[in-house]
Specification:
The chain is an alpha+beta fold. About 35% of the residues lie in helices and about 30% in strands. It contains six helices and nine strands. Strands 1, 2, 3, 4, 5, 6, 7 and 8 form an eight-stranded mixed beta sheet that branches. A hairpin with a 4-residue loop joins strand 6 and strand 7. The longest helix is centred in the middle third of the chain and has 20 residues. The protein is globular, with a radius of gyration of 17 Å.
Length: about 210
């Protein structure tokens, strides 16, 4: 099958633009010579006991009945940010919010969250209600980050607040893997925090994808 040209020459594209494009994710990523693979992704976990996770889970359960999660800002402040703050407390990693990244006229914009420990990175994209298109945007952000940082593997996660999906970029193989598993908050909060801490570095990782 011939490669379908999607991006228009001379036009600027932000990361958000890829969320809005009405094309299939694999077609969009092919523009950057990446192949999309959808399968179960094996994510490393830490064995360290995260003592405050149960407290955070209970807190979220108690406040959810009283908070409207009808927009992205509400979901980020109620579900995403509290979880990530707990992660960085354990891993002592840096977190950038609305981090600006510009590689070219077709790879530019802000990363919702960027977690960094030494040379390990995790990109998190928070969307309102569309995990599929949100993952496409996340994948493009990982491609952009891979062009300015020197490592071969990048992880990311896209979330609508109460549901998370991870992804992995392999720069050597030119492959992006989308995990078929979904993690839910607060039910899977223990697994989410353990995944992130290990990831940002066996050393504890970040979290997109």
């Amino acid at each position: 099958m011939s490669k379908r040209k999607i991006l228009e020459e001379g036009r600027d594209y932000s990361f958000r633009s890829y969320f809005e494009l009405a094309y299939e994710p694999d077609e969009i990523l092919a523009e950057f010579d990446y192949t999309l693979i959808i399968k179960e992704l094996s994510l490393p976990k830490t064995n360290i006991e995260l003592q405050r996770t149960a407290e955070l889970k209970q807190k979220i359960r108690e406040i959810l009945p009283f908070v409207s999660l009808s927009n992205a800002t509400a979901r980020r402040e109620t579900l995403v940010s509290p979880l990530l703050l707990e992660v960085i407390r354990y891993c002592e990693c840096k977190m950038r919010i609305e981090y600006p990244l510009r590689v070219s006229n077709i790879l530019k914009g802000n990363l919702d969250y960027l977690l960094q420990l030494k040379n390990q990175f995790l990109v998190i994209e928070a969307k309102n209600d569309d995990l599929t298109r949100g993952f496409t945007q996340l994948a493009v952000e990982l491609i952009a980050l891979s062009q300015v940082e020197e490592q071969d593997i990048y992880y990311g996660a896209v979330t609508i607040g109460n549901v998370w999906r991870f992804g992995k970029l392999d720069r050597i193989r030119q492959v992006i893997i989308q995990d078929i598993k979904l993690f839910r908050v607060p039910d899977d909060l223990d697994n989410l925090t353990k995944l992130r801490r290990q990831k940002i570095g066996g050393r504890r990782q970040k979290a997109s994808p």
